[in-house]
Every structure is written in structure tokens, then in C-alpha cells.
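User: My collaborator sent over this chain with a note saying "see what the structure looks like." That's all I know about it. Can you take a look?
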Amino acid sequence: MFYSGFAIIALILHIIINYDFILRKEGHSNGLRNRYYFRYLNSLFAFYIADIMWGFLYELKTVIPVYIDTTLFFFLMGLSVFEWTRFVIRYLNNDSLIHKVLNIAGWLIIIFTIISLILNLFMPVVFVFYKDGTYEPQNGRFIILTAQILLYFAASVYSFVVSFKKTGKMRVHYRTVAFSSMAMAIFIILQITDVMIAYYSVGGMICTAILHTFVLEDERKERENQLKESLEREKQQRIELENARRIIYIDSLTGVKNKFAFFEKEKEIEAKYEAGEALEYGIIVFDVNDLKYINDTFGHEAGDRWIKYACQLICDVFEYSPVYRTGGDEFVVCLENSDYVHREELMYLFNTTVEQNKKDNKVVVADGCAVYKEHQDFSFRSVCDRADRRMYARKTELKKKN
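Assistant: Without extra context I'll predict from the sequence alone. Here is the result:
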């Protein structure tokens, strides 16, 4: 029970520290490196179980069950070393000679362990149990543990030396491997000296605690970077979308909304009709006078300037409503907000300005306004048509004043 107590504590801490990787299995979804780390943690988890069972079975002196568990114990020990080497290679992310050596060493240890355990079925190579249940380690056990010590120690020294040549995150990675490997090597040495204390489990727990601290830190930084990249992409997409909307919905000459935007406005209001929502809006239709004369007499550049003057006049008066250029010399304002409330004053101001412009030979714009009436208008187009008729009446009126 004393032996199993160490392994039980190691298992409990292992689960608590690595909860996110073991129980929630996040390692499957966060990249190749974390998948190898997840496999390493699971191999250690299985080893702890075998180590705990060994303590109980050994005290019961049940030779066959404890023999089977001891065989599993050594196999899982070798498997954990193998999975550790595979994780470290990806964690350091460096295709150097030492990593190839590390990979080969991991394979050799697991293969040697398996062969030794098979031979142990026929002769005591790794361990032996006597009829009274007494356990006695053999030379094979010493070779297996010594090979692991050399592997962990070499990885620790190499990683610590290389860390001085690295900067930033890679320096942290190499030192993480260095300290965790050294901790594991020390506890394996202690395991060799005392068979009846679960030093290996304690070493595995300390090793993974060190690794997990920095693996999670890397994960946090990677997620922060991914979030920043995602936000940057979203920002860029918004800019591109806005540019696209500008190309599609903005009139290139005047900078106000174009006829496509006006069609969208029509759909928006028609949807409100269908939904039975309360509506409060007005439509003003504008037509620029004498544009053909300007184009024919002074050229199209002068005509474009004439259109811009007309647009500016409309925008200056109707500041709080969307302005649309729906044709060459045609504009529409959808009266909203305070413009709708003060529409009569604004219409008076606009027409006064237009009549003064006519006297001064400046731009003249005919207008016609219609306001939505609940029991009269059953579509957006009916309001526009009424405004359009009034605009033509105003256009005729302005021409008579020549």
C-alpha cells in the first residue's frame, strides 16, 4: 500500500494538471504537436494505473497477476519514453541530427523492452517472481532503466546547451525539455536504488508538470495570435466589403448613393409594408434643368460639373436624409428623421434658392415632394409616382418663368 500511495498521488496530480488534454481530449484538435503530447500523457496515465496495481498485487503475493502486471508495467514504461521522444521532436521543431538520434533512441528502447519482456517469459531477463511472491529485478531491468537515464540526461544537457543559442520562444522550449528531462533522469536513478518506492511515477508527474506549464503557455500565445489574425482578417474583410459596397452602391461622379442603392431602399420599405410596420417617410424627386444645353454648348465636363453643383445643392438642404442619383440628371431624396419633420421649411428653402439661381444663371433643379399616406399608399412606388408628377409640374412652372 505504501508503494501504491506514491503512484496514486502521481496519478491524481497527473489528471488535475492535464485535465484539459486527457479528459476533454483537446489534444486532438490543436495541431500535430499537441496530439503527440496527448499520446504521451495517455501512455503515462496507463503506466500509473499499472504501477498502482503492482503495489496492491505484490502485497497480496498473487504471483501470476503480479507477473502480468509487471510485464505491462515495463512495456508501458518503454511506451511512455517512446511517446516522449516523439513529442519532444515536434515540440522543438528542428530537423537536426540530435533529433534523429533521439527518434532512433526512442525506437530502440521500446523494441529492446518488448524483446526483453518476451524473453523474460522463458528465462529471468528483466525480473523474476519466486513461489513465495518475492520480486527480484534482473540485469535487463537495469539495462532498460540505464538506457532511459542516458537518453533523458543526454536530452537535458543538449537542450540546455542549445538554449543559449536560441532566443524567445525557442529558448523557452529547449530549457523546458532540459529541466523536465533532468528531473526524469534523477527519479529513474532513485528507482534503480530502491525498488519498493514508486519513484518513476513521481518523476513522470514532475516531468509532465514542467512540460504542461509551457505547452499551455504556448497554446495561450498561439490562440492570442490566431485571435489577432482573425480580427485582422475580419477588419480587412470589412474594409473590402465597404469598398465593394462603395463600388456597387455609390455614384462615382457625385459620391451620393446610386440607383442600385435606391432599389435596396425600395425593398427595405416594401418589406415594412408587408410586415405591417408603421411608416413615416417622404420622397422628393429632382430633375436638373438645362443639362443637355450645357453638354452640347460647353462639353460633357461642364455638364458633369453642373450635375455636381445640383447634387451639392440638394445635399446642403437635405442633410439628414439619404440622397440618390437615379439617372443622368435625376436625383431622389428619401425624407427621414428631422428632414421629414421640417420638410415644408426645407422645401421652401430649396425652391427659394433654385429661383434665385435661375436669376443668377446658376444651376436650376425642379423638385416634387410626396409624403406617405397610410390609407392612400400601398406601395413605395405609388409615393414615388406622385412625387414624380409634381416634379414635372414644377419643371414646367420653372420654364414658364423664363
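A starting point for your reply to your collaborator: The chain has two domains: 2-230, 257-400.
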